[in-house]
Design a protein that fits this description.
- By secondary structure, this protein is of the alpha/beta class.
- The strands form two sheets. It has a seven-stranded parallel beta sheet with strand order 3-2-1-4-5-6-7, with helices on both faces. It has a six-stranded parallel beta sheet with strand order 10-9-8-11-12-13, with helices on both faces.
- The relative contact order is 0.12.
Amino acid sequence: MKLALIRQRYNPYGGAERFVERALAALVAEGVEVDLITRNWEGAPAAGFRQITCDPPYSRLLGGRAARDRSFAEAAQALMAQGGYQITQSHERIPGCMIFRAGDGVHAAWLEHRARQLTAPARLAQRLSPYHRYVLGAERAMLEHPALAQVICNSRLVAQELQDYYGLPAARIALIYNGVDTAHFHPDRAAARRAAQRARLGLDRHTPLLLLVGSGFERKGVPALLQAMVRMRRQDAQLVVVGADRKLAAMAQRAARLGLAARVRFAGPAQDVLPWYGAADAFVLPSLYDPGPNAALEAMACGLPLLTSTSCGARDWVEAGKNGWVTDALDIAALAHALDELCELASQPGARQAARAAVQHLSLDAMSAHLIALYHRLLPAAKV
């Protein structure tokens, strides 16, 4: 089987890119001939695939991000047509692919969620944005294209949104969760790093430590989370935010203005997050919109109870009161209450066991098996 997998660029901290890496390795191990069509994938681990780099020029001044994405889409469409592929799987909104993986969610839904916290002028600017108008057009054109056979979703949230916003039939939607290395992200391995990491933070073993791992703080719900931290009963609870953001310094300043300088730390991005999972007592990800976050999957695999939002795909794995809580991303009072409840829940061994149990079946092997099974359904005669 010859397969083209399309992703525009590589970000070592991006969840979608990490899924692609894992999928590539799993497919190659199954004997699939894989070409990765990309603009920039420098620094990604080798996985035995062939990389096809296409970096067509575009006008940064006249077209910006929309011109960038359009130029790549046109180049990728040409390569898909010329490559003799049995399957083309895009992780970008490119009309003409056979499979689309909606790892970034539904753009129409994201804009609606984001608009909830914008001022009226900002909402108008969002509606008139050339970039958002391009992405919405590409999204609709791809979903309505006759070549599209299947859409892979990494949560029930995204599957429902595809039906709600575009009327996509359920038969054309495949729910395949992200895979996690359940041997590496394991409670025992995390616990082995707990004492040393907490000592570096100057924390004793009784202080509740909440952890958020993710880049793009607005989307991950950090502003609302800071406001909720102020209103917690447990004023001894600490928060560490691990991730990259262009406004990291500004967010740290906001935390200081809220009186949280002693309780909230911004650690920046980290390649190795296991020590942070080990140090934490619970994981928080009240995302404004998050289709299927790897970080929540990793944290729960390490035995951390989870607080997430109704607009985050990780809600699929939460059983309220047993391994976490789910609340509205912008309901500050509900968030504050849930944070207090989460601190209490995190002290219960049963909650940690329930967190691990909810995701331990979502292994890399399971993800690979689901992908291969999908390819077989689409091409019954193909030999993998």
